Amino acid sequence: MHPRFARGRGTHHGDSRRGGFYRWVRAGFGDFWGFLAGWWNWSASVLRRRVRRVIHGLLTNYLSFYFTIPGWMHYAIAIAVIAVIGYINVRGIQMVGTVASILEISILAPIVVLCAIAPRSGSTIRLHR
Questions:
Q1: pLDDT given for residue 66 in this prediction
Q2: Domain for residue 24, yes or no?
């Protein structure tokens, strides 16, 4: 079982060592894999922080295309998005799962609708010459 998967499933409670999954991986697979698990986790957290900043910047830039947003409002929107995401995370895994499912359905719904409408539109794509 992958150590990150085990951590997510809550199976880590059987091991009382402090240090998180780095310690569990190190104990189970040795120093090399423990180092890699810690390195990958650290690298991913650094990248996630950078990606969040980019996403918030893109969101506010996208909104500013349609609405006039003063400079200070740009930061207020970014802080509000961070606060909402933080609140959802603090509420727990059930709320995170519910919100993630709602967001995924809202992303997939237009695609399903367009796929259903496409055959009725009468346009065809010729795949052969």
A1: 82
A2: yes
**Residues 15 and 24: beta-carbon distance below 8 Å:** yes
Token pair for 26: 């190190």
CB 21, CB 4: distance < 8 Å: yes
Question: How far is the C-alpha of 76 from the C-alpha of 119, rounded, in Å?
Answer: 44
Phi-psi region of 70 (alpha: psi -120 to 50; beta: other; left: phi over 0): beta
Q: Which of 12-26, 85-99, 109-123 has the lowest average pLDDT?
A: 12-26
Q: Which of 18-22, 29-33, 37-41, 50-54 has the highest mean pLDDT?
A: 29-33
Domain count, the chain: 1
In a domain, 128, yes or no: no
Which residues, other chains included, contact 69 with Cβ-Cβ below 8 Å and sequence gap of 6+? 60, 63, 77
Tokens of 5: 């998967």
In terms of DSSP H, where are the helices of 30-92? 31-66, 71-91
Nearest Cα to 61, choosing from 70, 74, 80, 48?
74
54 lies in some domain: yes
